[in-house]
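JOB MANIFEST
job_type = single_chain_structure
chain_count = 1
residues = 225
[input]
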Amino acid sequence: MEAQMENPVSPVLDLKKQILSGYREYILMNGHQPPSINAFCKGLNISEEDFYLCFNSFERVAEAIWSDLFNQVIQTVEGNLEYGERSIREKLMSFYSEFFCQMKSYRSYAMITLEDVLSTFGSTPTGMAETKKEFKAWVKELIEEGVRLGRVAERNKLTDTYDSLLWFQFLFLLNFWKRDKSVGFEKTEVAVEKAVILTFDLIEKNALDSALEFGKFIFQSIETK
């Protein structure tokens, strides 16, 4: 009987989870990142070689924590059987609902590691550069779907900025959630609903778009006479 080959991916994934969990725990207990990779590895009873097999710095560990959370949220949301039938507005709402639900387990870590996310307009919070790329790629797909279905207004170059607009919305809501002291973060739920409604009122087709399209049609009709 042939011996089964070990899957090298599984041990690496387990090691990665151990490092991510250990890093979060250290931050929560000490309020700052470990003094060195060597000291951190000794605390986890792993070698530096093990650490560098997964990451090349603490910054990459911090990036992976938020990136993994984002992807878990997307996987949960898109795994819902009703997801495909939802409008893009509803899809974004479901993302925020799941994201802030899972963030309850990350609140203490977020309060320590995330600075005022709106302190500088357009800035990226520490540890969220990768999440920013993934978020903007995901919402860009939503926007393209909306344009294709005729729900989102195609406004030439302005349409290309919608993903940045939604990223800023994400930062605004994250900052609001950090400051929210209401029971069960009820105020954040209201803020999410109002922010999403406002955003889609701006990017979806409306009376102004219809008027512009009608004007364009009239102008082109006159020219072709």
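[summary]
The domain at 66-213 is CATH 1.10.357 (Tetracycline Repressor; domain 2).
Residues 9-30 form the longest helix (22 residues).
exit_status = 0
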